[in-house]
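Final paragraph of the annual report: two paired records, presented back to back.
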Amino acid sequence: MLDLPIRPPAHAGTFYPADPEELVKVIEWAFLHPLGPGRLPEGHGTERLSIGYVVPHAGYIYSGPVAAHAYYMLSKEKPPETVVIIGPNHNGVGHPAAVYRGKAWRTPLGEVAVDNEFSQALVEESAYLAFDNDAHYYEHSLEVQVPFLQYILRDVDFRIAAISVYYQSPRVARDIAGAILRAAEKTGRDIVVIGSTDFNHYEPHDITVEKDMEAINAILELDEEKLFRLIEEKNITMCGPISAATLIVMAKMLGAPRPRLLKHATSGDVTGEKSWVVGYASIMFPRA
């Protein structure tokens, strides 16, 4: 284990503060923001309430308040042993369905261990997933989730398994969803999945809200085929449909109820600039 790499933070100082104290302040700002939950997390529950969450991945000053809704709900659950983070590969570097293998991920708040046993099981159970760290080193969609996890789970020992995906299709989502569930069964891990995606990009606020809600409704209907069809037909520039689709498939495989939209907003709701926005949503996938 000691010879395995530690992934350094690639986006500290850009997507979120590099100073630990300032980072905590910004995370707490997100929880307390008018678009956020309006309160800080207070302790943990004793039950696993969710399969996972769809969470945005922009700079904290834009999407942090929306992301805080998912992390507030997760904080109320029994702390997971392993958090599986799946997000899109924006850079096109490395294997198109890449699992990270290493010792830990480092952020300004410290290090989080990688669950390599679970990650190995993921690769073994999937027709698409393979180990490739190159796909992860500069990808922000997974990295920005880690400080939020460190903040809400700072009093417990947890690990992460990281999946960066360039392939975006229902078939790949079904494969990864099955691999996650089989890996959890094989390793005995209590897991939660964080599905990282932003929604429509760089159109006016009103258009983005309309497009986002079409995609969100497909997610709430647990219809991954409809989600991908709408993205194509309506030109919805959602960057991580694979993340939401994987959670949709997991929910159906587990016989879980429909997801719950916790919060939707755009960058314009935060900044006031509504002519050129990005859409964000936090969505909870409850357990059966």
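The closing record of the year follows.
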Amino acid sequence: MKGKGFALSAIGSGAIFTSEEEGLLFVLSGPSGVGKDATINRMKELGFPLHFIVTYTTRPIRANEVDGRDYHFVSVSRFQEMIQSGEFLEWALVYGDYKGNSRREVREAIAAGKDVILRIDVQGAQTIRQLAPEAVFIFLAPSSMEELFQRLRKRKSDSPEQLATRMAIAPKEMAELPKFDYVVVNRDEELDQAVRQIEAIITAERCRVKKRRILL
């Protein structure tokens, strides 16, 4: 997938190429355990020309994660300081841990003409929808609830209580699907297919005659 070029603007009966347009904002969301992290990591591996925002979180780092690459891992006190200073575009308390995305990083990347992608839970997606209704909202879904529950069990990174909470909330998260622009089903062992569909969505959005305008 190639990067963006110049914007085409119609004037009179013809058309001219204008200066580089501002970037788009893509929001990838879905229920816990659906594979948002794996999808983002695969997009990075394939060299998607996107600005990937690294989320801040207070949850413990997992064995296969790297601070600053997968998430910015910070203490609760530091996160709360960032809330007070208005550093987050959106933040939420998710399953007992804080998560948030940098307001400055998103704004600067979009202003520089970069397409930005956020990986957030459905609660965060609702906040972004209020702040930037012209963003492109993609819902990553499992092929079935049983498939989703199996993934949550296999992760083995949650306590029994945390696992039960995630499974109880999952149907409510799935109920948010109609609010999104697109849905991509992430089936077991078919991650690349889901990534190709996201690539098609990005391409289609870049080809719109009436471009989305992201105001933050």
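The radius of gyration is 18 Å. This concludes the annual technical report; the extension proposal builds directly on these records.
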